[in-house]
C-alpha cells in the first residue's frame, strides 16, 4: 500500500507519517483468550506543523458482536523523534520557537538514524485518573516498540508501574499490543487490537 507524505509535514515527522489519520477497529483485553472482554477503539494521529504528532485514543467496551456497552478509556499525548531540542523548538510552556523547523531537510533527519537503522522516538501519554507515561523506543519503517521510562501517578491514582507497547502496519492495518505492570502484577498482556484507516 503506497504511503503519501503530506507536503506540509515538517521533516522530523516523516518517519512517523504512516501513523497520520483516523484508525478504527476492535480488540480484546488481556491475552485475547476465550472469555476476554471485547472493545472498540478509535485512534487519531494529527499534526499541526510542529515537530510532533498529537495522539488521541478512545475506547468503548462492547459485546462480542461489537455492540457498544459503555465507555472504556481515553488517552492523549504527543509522539516525536527523540533528539536534542534547540531554539527552533517551542517551550517550555508558551515560549515561542524560531520560525524555521528544527530539522530542515531529509539529510538532517537521516543523521538521526540509530545503529539498528531506525529512529529513536519518545511518546508522552496521559490518562484520566492522574497517570502519565513517558515512553522511549524505536520506529523502524512501519514498526514501533515503546517502553516506559517513567510512569507518574497522583497520590490517589491506582497502582501502575510500567508498560510496553508495540505497533505495526500490516497490509494497511494498524496492529498494536499493550503490556502493563499494575496492581502488584509483573508485566503482562493488557490489550491488543487491529485498526483500519478511515481517513
- Biggest pleated-sheet summary: 10 strands, antiparallel, barrel
Percent of sequence in beta strands: over 45%
Number of helices: 1
**Major beta sheet, strand line-up:** 1-2-3-4-5-6-7-8-9-10
Estimate percent helicity. under 10%
What structural category characterises the helix and strand content? mainly beta
Overall, the morphology is globular
How would you sum up this structure in a few lines?
Residues 13-197 form the THAP4-like heme-binding domain. Helix content is 3%, strand content 51%. It has 199 residues and is mostly beta strands.
List keywords for this structure.
single chain, 199 residues, mainly beta, 10-stranded antiparallel barrel, globular, metal-binding, isomerase
Q: What features would you describe in this structure?
A:
The protein is an all-beta fold and 199 residues long. It is built from 1 helix and 10 strands. The protein has one helix spanning 106-110; strands at 21-29, 38-46, 53-62, 68-81, 119-127, 131-139, 143-153, 160-170, 173-182, 188-197. A 10-stranded antiparallel beta barrel has the order 1-2-3-4-5-6-7-8-9-10. A hairpin with a 3-residue loop joins strand 6 (131-139) and strand 7. It is globular. 22% of the residues are buried. The mean pLDDT is 94.
Amino acid at each position: 500500500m503506497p504511503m503519501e507524505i503530506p507536503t506540509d509535514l515538517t521533516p522530523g515527522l516523516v518517519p512517523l507519517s504512516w501513523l497520520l489519520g483516523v484508525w478504527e477497529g476492535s480488540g480484546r483485553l488481556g491475552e485475547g483468550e476465550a472469555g476476554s472482554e471485547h472493545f472498540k477503539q478509535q485512534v487519531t494521529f494529527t499534526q499541526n506543523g510542529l515537530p510532533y504528532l498529537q495522539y488521541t485514543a478512545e475506547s468503548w467496551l462492547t459485546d462480542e458482536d461489537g455492540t457498544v456497552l459503555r465507555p472504556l478509556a481515553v488517552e492523549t499525548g504527543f509522539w516525536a523523534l527523540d533528539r536534542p531540542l534547540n531554539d527552533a523548538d517551542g517551550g517550555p510552556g508558551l515560549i515561542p520557537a524560531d520560525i524555521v523547523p528544527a530539522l530542515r531537510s531529509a539529510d538532517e533527519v537521516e543523521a538521526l538514524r540509530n545503529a539498528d537503522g531506525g529512529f529513536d522516538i519518545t511518546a508522552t501519554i496521559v490518562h484520566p485518573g492522574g497517570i502519565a507515561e513517558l515512553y522511549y523506543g524505536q520506529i523502524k519503517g512501519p514498526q514501533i516498540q515503546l517502553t516506559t521510562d517513567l510512569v507518574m501517578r497522583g497520590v490517589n491514582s491506582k497502582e501502575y508501574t510500567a508498560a510496553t507497547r508495540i505497533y505495526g502496519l500490516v497490509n494497511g492495518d494498524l496492529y498494536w499490543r499493550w503490556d502493563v505492570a499494575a496492581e502488584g502484577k509483573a508485566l503482562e498482556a493488557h490489550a491488543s487490537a487491529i485498526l483500519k484507516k478511515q481517513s
